[in-house]
Design brief:
The protein has 197 residues and is α+β, with helices and mostly antiparallel strands. It has three domains: 30 residues, no CATH class; 134 residues, Roll (FAS1 domain), CATH 2.30.180; 29 residues, no CATH class. The protein is built from nine helices and ten strands. The strands form three sheets. The chain has a four-stranded mixed sheet. Strand 2 and strand 3 form a beta hairpin. Helix 2 packs across helix 6. The longest helix is centred in the N-terminal third of the chain and has 10 residues. The chain is elongated and about 80 Å long. One of its GO terms (cellular component) is extracellular matrix. One of its GO terms (molecular function) is cell adhesion molecule binding. One of its GO terms (biological process) is cell adhesion. This is BGH3 protein.
């Protein structure tokens, strides 16, 4: 599927005497802002703005290139426990891994996304990007709230849930989500959970 500034290419290569015509499905608007400028001006990305500044990713998001930012909204950050958020914000390495997990290495417009697509993030992990009816999905969950916000260096999709990679979790958090969750409960009962956090 080919897109032009996130407009789907419907018919290509109509040859005329003075050139070639490609038919697309929407009007292309002028794009002047970088991904970083979108983050700086969008009210619903205030927490992300703070996180990007703390992780020193601003220069990347305003540089030339073609990226996809899965931008967690303020609502997405509010959904995780406050102590978990504070821990990640206070750990530069975990914060950088978290944000890099939300950046794809290429620009991916919604029109070009098909079911079963695996995309690599800047963190080196992968995300399953797909669709369910009209909704886009990440790892099987329809969490993209707003799509195809165009930037001069890529595209931004707003997501209403935080995607936390394993590298940004404590041993305790990883264990709670795995097959050893009962063992985790035993550590907690024995007063040893602090060693896992």
């Amino acid at each position: 599927i080919v897109t032009v500034n996130c407009a789907r290419l419907l018919k290509a290569d109509h040859h005329a005497t003075n050139g070639v015509v490609h038919v697309i499905d929407k009007v292309i608007a002028t794009t002047t802002n970088t991904i970083q400028q979108i983050i700086e001006t969008e009210d619903s990305l205030e927490t992300l703005r703070t996180a990007v500044a703390a992780s020193d990713l601003s220069s990347l998001l305003e540089s030339q290139g073609q990226y996809t930012l899965l931008a967690p909204t303020n609502e997405a950050f509010e959904k995780i426990p406050r102590e978990t958020l504070n821990r990640i914000l206070g750990d530069p390495e975990a914060l950088r891994d978290l944000l890099n997990h939300h950046i794809l290495k290429s620009a991916m417009c919604a029109e070009a996304i098909i079911a079963g697509l695996t995309m690599e993030t800047l963190e080196g992990t992968t995300l399953d990007v797909g669709c369910s009816g009209e909704e886009l999905t990440l790892n099987g969950k329809a969490i993209i709230a707003n799509k195809d916000v165009l930037a001069t260096n890529g595209v931004v999709h707003f997501v209403n849930e935080l995607l936390i990679p394993d590298s940004a979790k404590t041993v305790f958090e990883l264990a709670q989500e795995s097959e050893v969750s009962k063992s985790t409960d035993l550590f907690r009962q024995a007063g040893l959970s602090s060693h896992l956090t």
